[in-house]
Design a protein that fits this description.
By secondary structure, the chain is an alpha/beta fold. The protein folds into two domains: about 150 residues, Glycogen Phosphorylase B (Rossmann fold, 3-Layer(aba) Sandwich), CATH 3.40.50; about 160 residues, Glycogen Phosphorylase B (Rossmann fold), CATH 3.40.50. The protein is built from 13 helices and twelve strands. The longest helix has 18 residues.
Length: about 325
């Protein structure tokens, strides 16, 4: 039995996008021991996953490289994120096979990463290149990470995103109205091409579609959630949810509307139609690499300014997209 160590210590959404690769490794190597090193923040994605045998939370006061050096007897190590911390952690394990990836134009990282991994894959994702070349096609991050599993010898490919939802999670969401439009609130709804006042108008416009409206939020959306709650534009405003309960709310939705956050990928994991509003800057790259995955969706771009005309047009786009997906 081999010992396989995976590392992904960045964001919740990015770890969700890695779940097909993790499931692919499990399906391909059922008798091996698979451990994953996560951060305290994103470990919720895999803490109940049947695809890993061990979830290791990286202590916040220990460097990735130092922690990786403490992992012994590792046969295969894979950095699922294209960042220095995960590449260093994998390198420090000194496993005979160490696989990772980075972006083609990060030349210094490419040079240094050769010391950390035995096999370095390159991604063509680059905002400047996408802006200059409208024909450039960038692989979705799911497919980029799946390439790591394939390079490790995996052959039983699993393509669907995975999140674990328990009966208790579903019970926590059971009192919400059925088949609602769910809007995930966050700070980006209030800046750079969107405003809190426009969000309230969006709720009023969505109300005309005749569906219940549920707003969900995390820490960065608390201030906006208070504004939505006080305006009485949503049937329910729900926050402070455990990860599984949040996914269970999305699972009940007829359609999910969100800015570009991890909510996009939770929605894909529970296979719900999704409308995503991406930032105006780097739209071509971000809308390819982090779009909803394998679900009906609409990918929209924030306006370049916050003029009344631009905000009105943006709201109309969102409502039209939701209407088409319902």
């Amino acid at each position: 039995m081999r010992r396989i160590v995976l590392s992904r210590t960045d964001r919740v959404g990015d770890l969700i996008l890695s779940t097909p690769a993790i499931a692919t490794l499990r399906a391909s190597f059922p008798n091996d021991h698979i451990a994953i090193v996560c951060s305290r923040y994103n470990a919720v994605v895999v803490e109940h996953s049947p695809d890993v045998d061990e979830v290791i939370v990286l202590p916040p006061d220990v460097s990735a490289a130092r922690y990786g050096a403490e992992l012994t007897g590792v046969d295969l190590a894979i950095a699922l994120a294209p960042n220095a911390a995960d590449l260093q952690l994998v390198g420090a394990t000194r496993a005979p096979v160490r696989i990772g990836y980075t972006y083609a134009r990060r030349y210094l990282t490419r040079l240094i990463a050769r010391r950390w991994v035995t096999d370095l894959l390159l991604s063509s994702a680059d905002p400047a290149l996408c802006d200059r070349n409208p024909k450039l096609v960038v692989k979705h991050e799911v497919d980029q990470v799946l390439e790591l599993a394939k390079r490790a010898g995996a052959t039983r490919i699993v393509s669907d995103l995975r999140v674990m939802i328990s009966a208790a999670d579903r019970a926590a969401a059971a009192d919400l109205p059925p088949d609602p439009i769910v809007v995930q609130l966050g700070r980006r709804w209030t800046e750079r091409g969107s405003t809190s006042a426009s969000v309230l108008e969006l709720f009023r416009a969505l109300r005309r579609l005749g569906r219940p409206l549920v707003a969900t939020y995390g820490v960065d959306g608390a201030a906006l959630a208070a504004i939505v709650r006080e305006a009485y534009v949503a049937d329910r405003v729900v926050g402070g949810l455990a990860f599984g309960a949040w996914a269970a709310v999305f699972e009940r939705a007829a359609c999910i509307v969100t800015i570009d956050t991890g909510a996009t990928h939770v929605a894909s994991a529970v296979r719900r139609p999704t409308v995503v509003l991406f930032e105006h800057a780097y739209f071509r790259l971000n809308s390819q690499e982090w779009s909803p995955y394998r679900v009906p969706n609409a990918v929209l771009r924030k306006p370049a300014d916050e003029s009344p005309e631009a905000l009105r047009a943006s709201r109309a786009e969102i409502v039209a997209a939701v209407t088409a997906l319902l």
